[in-house]
Amino acid sequence: MQWYDSVVPEVGNSERSWGGASFLLAQVGAHAAARFKERIAELDLAAPQAGLLRMIAVTPGLSQQAYATRLGTPPSRFVTLVDGLEARGLVERRRGEPDRRLYALHLTEAGQQMMRRIGAVGRAHENALCEALNDTERAQLRDLLARIAEQQELTAGVHPGYRPRS
Amino acid sequence: MQWYDSVVPEVGNSERSWGGASFLLAQVGAHAAARFKERIAELDLAAPQAGLLRMIAVTPGLSQQAYATRLGTPPSRFVTLVDGLEARGLVERRRGEPDRRLYALHLTEAGQQMMRRIGAVGRAHENALCEALNDTERAQLRDLLARIAEQQELTAGVHPGYRPRS
Asked: What InterPro entries is this protein classified in (chains A, B) (predicted)?
């Protein structure tokens, strides 16, 4: 039974009071995103900036257009995002090979250092968020979520909240 | 190893490509919330309206202030939210007992019918979202998420995305 199955309250029905999997996912997910945003702000980064740095780190040297498409970010917003990271010396645009008309994106040395700091923040975040679970249970949770993500055809490593707004 | 542990890409590392539990939670959670919002819009409801109807259904007859506090909604926004539901005949304000200065909120007959329609939408949403999992795995996922929610001190049945904005 899910929370929405009944209008009559029943005390002590923990499934009712906490809701179904989809409600809990939305609730815990929003909490996870908000806490990550707070933590990453300590590095003077916005979540979309961290998301792009991560994507360049994992798959470097693609064209700006390729990253923008993957993130689902409109071109003009994407340029603003890259400009900010370039101005801070974290990312550089290089003429692409084989197509020299396109700029490929790479992390600078400072960008790689920043990724390591993001990594430390990410680990602290993961540990704090999953404190209630042991290692086996965390792996179980990751597996269940990854299967939902795959079946729902979500893009690996990209989530809507990381898309730059305005 | 989490996605943020390494800057060097490794093809075929599914944990890297999908990210840690916290990233997946944020990603799948945002997807769940967005899909629910779309589905519930078919009933001409906004997610915060559905959230309040549900809260009144589960715990009816509290004062407006009590619901507002639980939802974390500022009083003025809360009044607007209730006004909208009252205008549609889904909710009614009644003089409270024992304190007749306070208005208590109740679902009308139409409000209870709407809750049943929300229930049907919620079940369809849950089934579509969790299509990749069998019943045992869904229960497992609910249990893991509920433990995180409890340890993180989230309020049962309330999530930030359901709070009315503006």
From this structure: HTH_MarR-typ (IPR000835), MarR/SlyA-like (IPR039422), WH-like_DNA-bd_sf (IPR036388), WH_DNA-bd_sf (IPR036390)
Query: Which among B6, B125, B144 is the nearest to A140, CB-wise?
Result: B144
A132 CB within 8 Å of a chain B CB: yes
Q: Give the CATH number, domain containing residue A106.
A: 1.10.10.10
A1 falls within a domain: no
Range(s) of the domain holding residue A135: 26-162
Domain count within chain B: 1
**Is position A90 within any domain?**
yes
- The size of chain B, in residues, is 166
List pLDDT tens digits, range A110-149: 999 999 999 999 999 999 999 999 999 999 999 999 999 9
The DSSP secondary structure of B54-115, one letter per residue, reads HHHHHSTT-BHHHHHHHHT--HHHHHHHHHHHHHTTSEEEEE-SS-TTSEEEEE-HHHHHHH
Residues of B whose CB is below 8 A from A1 = none
In a domain, B165, yes or no: no
* Mean of per-residue pLDDT scores for chain B: 83
Residue B71 in domain: yes
Cβ–Cβ gap A118/B148 under 8 Å:
no
Indicate which of B1, B112, B138, B148 best probes the interface with A, i.e. most A CBs within 10 Å of its own CB.
B148
* Amino acid B70: pLDDT: 87
How far is the C-alpha of B131 from the C-alpha of B125, rounded, in Å?
Answer: 10
pLDDT greater at residue B103 or residue B82: B82
